[in-house]
Amino acid sequence: MDATREGVNGKDDGLNEIIRTVERLKELVNPEGIVSSRSKKEVFDLAYTLRYAINGAEEGNDADDVIRDSRAALRHAEFGLYVANYGLIGYVGERLGIYLEDPLLQEAQEGLMSAVQGYDPSRGFAFTSYGYKAIKNRVLRALRIQRKDGVSLWHPAGENGDLIDGLASSQKTPLEILSEGEVDRLRDCINSALSGLSFREKQVVSWYFGLTGDRHTLEEIGRTFNFSRERVRQIKKGALNKLSQNKKLEDMYALLD
Q1: pLDDT tens digits for 148-190?
Q2: Cα separation of 56 and 30, whole Å?
């Protein structure tokens, strides 16, 4: 008699539970790893149950095949939950005010998978809250490490080494890292530096980097001013060159470094 059949016949209640859980997961997670929104809660519950059962099962002899298959089913379910909740990564980036690109995107992805694998449904809180916090903490930790290693969002980051291009780079440090007083000082520093630009330069820089709200592309800014994309890019470049030589930015360096 094979290992699975022995478990089904009741010789090992632990294996029975694992087998039943795997069978149910296969019903809820399709071969492509798709989990419907209606099934997410149950899949999380089953994944947690299966993970706990696998950890408590004794390997060897009859259990080997069952445990190996159940681990594969668990990985597949975790992948499905990861895909189903991938939108949390974009939400975190939006709330922090940054575009998540490598290496920060990779940190966010690892944070999401870690949350999927560590979520305990029995604790009573929604995965969205747990996953959001896990992703956010992972990204902020990476940003703090970058700052500690001397990688600053205010250092040259653009294709031309432009100082303020760091505002839109993956190295951007969220304002949440700073205290309320520091945020106010930072805004004062930025506004003071921008005061040395022409009205058009200030508008282009502010809109492009989202300093006054949502970010806008060169094309969007061009439509507002009835300029070509290339003309807007030239205005931006000229403004950033001015800012890179602005003494008023020294206070900003001191605040962030």
Answers
A1: 655 443 333 344 333 334 433 433 434 444 444 555 555 566 6
A2: 27
Side-chain-side CA neighbours of residue 57 (13 Å): 27
Quote the tokens at residue 129: 């809250």
Nearest Cα to 2, choosing from 62, 59, 58, 71? 62
DSSP 99-149: ---TTHHHHHHHHHHHHHHH--GGG---HHHHHHHHHHHHHHHHHHHHHHT
d(CA 189, CA 251): 7
How many angstroms from the chain centroid is the CA of residue 200?
34
Could you tell me if 194 and 187 are in contact, meaning their C-beta atoms sit under 8 angstroms apart?
A: no
| Residue 67 near residue 45, CB atoms below 8 Å | no
The Cα 242–Cα 244 span in angstroms is: 5
